[in-house]
Amino acid sequence: MNQKQRPIYIYAVITILSAYLLFNPTARKIFSRYVEYYKLSSNMELAQQSNLEYKKRLYYLETKPSIMDRIVKSELGVIAEGEVEYRFEKAPIKRDTKNEK
User: Fold this and answer.
1) Among the listed residues 55, 56, 80, 82, the one whose alpha carbon sits nearest the alpha carbon of residue 70
2) Any idea what DSSP says for residue 3?
3) Residue 30, in any domain of the structure
4) Domain hosting residue 53, numbered range
5) CA dihedral of residues 38, 40, 44, 45 (deg, nearest 10)
């Protein structure tokens, strides 16, 4: 075989295989199910990670009551009776343009 004819045969085989996969309903169904399986498995991994985070949070809520107080204060902004809330404003930083080059 010539070196120039080899790529032509490869392109012909690739074209025939892609046409077969494209027009064969069984192959399309298998491919679409594979794509769906891939999407579901990635969603399942994300759900398992968030499940672990929720289990850790539940464990700390059940065992350490100070964690619950901290969560209530940070997420809901609740202040206990007798506590004082301090808020600090961020002042804009003034740059000295004389010293900068």
Assistant:
1) 80
2) T
3) yes
4) 5-58
5) 20
Torsion of CA 73, 74, 75, 76, to 10 degrees: 30
CA distances from 53 to 12, 21, 58, 64 (A): 52, 42, 9, 16
pLDDT tens track for 25-69:
888 888 889 999 999 999 999 999 999 999 998 898 888 878 888
Tell me, letter by letter, the H, E, C secondary structure of 84-101: CCCCCCCCCCCCCCCCCC
Would you say residue 69 lies in a domain? no
Q: In this structure, is residue 47 part of a structural domain? A: yes
Burial of residue 13 (CB within 10 Å: 0-12, 13-18, 19+) is exposed
- Contact indicator for 67, 61 with CB cutoff of 8 Å: yes
